[in-house]
Amino acid sequence: MNKTLFLAAGILALSLASSICTSCRKNAGEPVFYENPVVRATAPDPSVIRAEDGTFYMYATGKGYSIFRSNNMVDWVKVGKVFNDENYPSLVRNNRKASLWAPEIRKIKDKYVLFYTLWFGTEWLSAIGYATADAPEGPFTDRGILIDSREVDVEQSIDQFYYEDKGKSYLFWGSFRNIYAVELKVSDDVTITPDLGTKVQVAGNAYEGSNIFKRGKYYYFFASVGDYSGGEKSTYRTVVARSRNVLGPYVDRNGVSIMDNGFEEILDWNDSFSGPGHNAGIIVDDAGQTWMFYHAYQLSNLGLQRQGMLDKVEWTRDGWPFIEGGQPSSKAEAPVIKNITVTEIEPEPEPDLDEKYAAGMLAKGTAAPSFTLKGPDGRNVSLEDFRGKYVVLDFWASWCPDCRKDVPRLKELFNEYSSDKIAFLGVSFDTEKDKWTDFVKENGMGWNHVSPLHKWKETQVSKDYKVDWIPSMYLIDPDGNIVFGTVMIEKMGKALSEIK
Known about the structure:
mainly beta, Tachylectin-2, Chain A, Glutaredoxin, globular
């Protein structure tokens, strides 16, 4: 089915939903509806599990991995995180600790097992490890590395998925450098060891974020294709193939193997959401209906980046999954969840990241250190060039995940506040000019940019401005003095809104 028909079907479905109900909550016995996003917070790469008491837990990429909790799959509250300074994976490579990506949660024997991805900035330094806990909210204990890119000879060893079948345990993993699987040995105390002699390629290089679901006689390979980044321009989408064997071969409707990058597309963008993908493993509700959690950009709220989404997975008569309209829903009938007795969920207070990451930044009233660096065209640009204006000084790098997350919101601030009174200046800590300038161009970052093209913490400008974390931002007044420094872009937005 082409995209025009998908969009038409989706618009009709939304119109019908709107005519059926005017509020999301109905009286007893009537349908209950929910609205997307179900997690109205940054929640990329979700993984979801139902605990023994019937409640649901979602784990998502973020500082330390965010943990959200729900009683009904549609109302979510953040209740904590997996890792903090005390239990954060200690592995250091490329002179840095890792960024945590794409969590995967499972209950194995009597433990909750959180599989994690460690990203060190380059494809050959990535790794996959695991941590265990007695309860879904932790505390989690790091148990070490399972997969190392160099040791298993798999570039970009990230995006892991755990699956059990016929008494065996498997780990699937990979991202745009082919998808692989390996058998795991799991001891009674949940010590997990990969049997690297069983490593096998499952899919080609079109995919990432893969997971497996068994229904009837078929195994279904769900994955994402395209570019997850770019906000409203994201090309990310969700695809599927199937097989009668857990290790494949998986094929599309026409028999094209995923080894040759065949697939059936089941979820793409619409006029409300872009980049729908990196779905969690399929969840079955109490009525036997199948559901898919995934992330997407909400076009009306790009500042929250990739939010948590939910849609029902339907099935054709010949056993192929689809989502109504082939696109994210804005409003739909909710999952069926039986009444469960749980304690009231207390939300975790939102942390003030400046207390941890901006404490050492230059104080208000300090004269902003002068610097002259080269722009993309090779010309010198000095801070003094902007004297007489407020300057939003943004320290970042194209390889930095948190920096990339802030780009859509920073673009919004630039479009709203850039004027003859307010200038924006980006200082990149990229070391390769092409990666820096290509990222700026591809993401439409239309403000002034400079770079020392040198490692972040070795640069004089980072030392002068006490940049211990990126992204970091300063607001500098027209006289060249520091107004404040922050690592939280929303604080910058508030400050700009108060400039008369």
